[in-house]
């Protein structure tokens, strides 16, 4: 009985990890919720829907720029202080969104809010892995990122409902409240940095990021995840124009995708804890396979719903292995490398959305997005193979060191 109790206790994740999840939920909600508010924002601020859509692009650009910028500015700060400061930036940014008198002010507020995104997830991932045993690091990352997936599943629809019934500003007031709560919870539960976690000079972190294996890890993330958004960006027209669903069916089908995201994120963490390299190849290969087979599934509605769920699982099962791979290769400069990998995910999002648009406009069209996206993800697998080959001398040396001499 004592053994069982000890095992159960050791399997529990520390409360501080769930505090990070709360922050991830708030940030994930504010990133995606604007998609459900475009019509209200456009009408209220008297801009076109296309201009309102740029509020999404502005946020993504802010994430990509903000990750290295804020990591550099905060490089000598304790990690807990960085996380609290970033949540303050996030909260103030959403407050500014709620109070924005015009489109320009709203765009500036969105960009300010986005600056905290990359560094929060980057530093948060480093802190999360430091809270658990070495064989639970990927699971810790996946639990933190569950906040992002739950935001997509629950936070975004709730925000869209608030915007529909009480105006789009009410949504940003609600996210501001989430930010206040998350800030207080992180300040209360996340432990202070240990003495062996002294801040690292930004110049040293830059040297770490310049390592070939770290750069390949970032490239792996860009290409591996670009395939996801080559399809997901255009999921509504794919479902309605190719699969033949009614507009009213899109939201319930996306709910299936959201459930798949949560399951895949947790599954990817467990697989990576058992074996990082096998999990990396397995999750990327599964994603490529699901994307390729979706091309055929779209001709049958039941198969389409099934593959949308599998798409969610496969897409987010890649996240913990990709993030942990970069963290492992960036020993001595994890803050910057981890933040840059979050930027790499967003760069992959932008690249995938652009490529999908090219395929739609110039051919072969919506129905081909699945196999084109699969080819992009396969390029991420090729980068992973390149990285694996570079490690061959180290693996051989390690094997030789463990073999008994005759």
From TrEMBL:
Keywords: Cell membrane, Membrane, Transmembrane, Transmembrane helix. GO terms for molecular function: transmembrane transporter activity. Gene3D superfamilies: MFS general substrate transporter like domains (1.20.1250.20). Its main location: membrane. Residues 16-391 form the Major facilitator superfamily (MFS) profile domain. One of its GO terms (cellular component) is plasma membrane. InterPro entries: MFS, MFS_dom, MFS_Efflux_Transporters, MFS_trans_sf. The chain crosses the membrane at residues 16-43, 49-70, 82-101, 107-133, 140-164, 170-192, 213-237, 249-268, 275-296, 302-327, 339-362, 368-388. PROSITE patterns: MFS. PANTHER family: INNER MEMBRANE TRANSPORT PROTEIN YDHP (PTHR43124:SF8), PURINE EFFLUX PUMP PBUE (PTHR43124). This is DHA1 family inner membrane transport protein. It comes from Luteimonas cucumeris.
């Amino acid at each position: 009985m004592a053994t069982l109790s000890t095992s159960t206790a050791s399997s529990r994740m520390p409360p501080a990890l769930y505090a990070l999840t709360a922050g991830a939920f708030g940030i994930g909600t504010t990133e995606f919720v604007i998609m459900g508010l475009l019509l209200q924002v456009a009408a209220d601020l008297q801009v076109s829907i296309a201009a309102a859509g740029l509020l999404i692009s502005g946020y993504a650009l802010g994430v990509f720029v903000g990750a290295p910028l804020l990591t550099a500015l905060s490089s000598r700060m304790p990690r807990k202080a960085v996380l609290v400061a970033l949540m303050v930036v996030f909260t103030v940014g959403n407050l500014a969104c709620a109070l924005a008198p015009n489109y320009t002010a709203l765009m500036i507020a969105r960009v300010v809010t986005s600056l905290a995104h990359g560094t929060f997830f980057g530093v948060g991932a480093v802190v999360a892995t430091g809270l658990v045993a070495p064989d639970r690091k990927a699971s810790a990352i996946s639990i933190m990122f569950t906040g992002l997936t739950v935001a997509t599943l629950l936070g975004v629809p709730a925000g869209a409902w608030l915007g529909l019934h009480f105006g789009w500003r009410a949504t940003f007031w609600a996210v501001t409240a989430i930010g206040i709560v998350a800030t207080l919870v992180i300040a209360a539960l996340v432990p202070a940095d240990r003495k062996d976690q002294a801040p690292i000079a930004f110049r040293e972190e830059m040297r770490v990021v310049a390592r070939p294996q770290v750069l390949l890890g970032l490239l792996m993330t860009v290409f591996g995840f670009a395939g996801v958004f080559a399809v997901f960006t255009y999921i509504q027209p794919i479902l309605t124009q190719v699969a033949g669903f009614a507009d009213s069916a899109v939201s319930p089908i996306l709910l299936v995708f959201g459930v798949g995201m949560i399951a895949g994120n947790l599954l990817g963490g467990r697989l990576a804890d058992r074996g990082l390299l096998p999990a990396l190849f397995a999750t990327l290969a599964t994603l490529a396979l699901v994307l390729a087979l979706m091309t055929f599934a779209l001709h049958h509605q039941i198969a389409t719903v099934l593959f949308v769920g599998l798409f969610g699982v496969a897409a987010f099962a890649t996240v913990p292995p990709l993030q942990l791979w970069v963290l492992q290769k960036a020993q001595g400069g994890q803050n910057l490398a981890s933040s840059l990998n979050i930027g790499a995910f967003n760069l992959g999002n932008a690249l995938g959305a652009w490529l999908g648009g090219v395929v739609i406009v110039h051919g072969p069209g919506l129905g081909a997005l699945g196999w084109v996206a699969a080819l992009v993800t396969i390029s991420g697998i090729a980068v992973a193979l390149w990285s694996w080959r570079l490690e061959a001398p180290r693996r051989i040396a390690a094997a030789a060191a463990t073999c008994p001499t005759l």
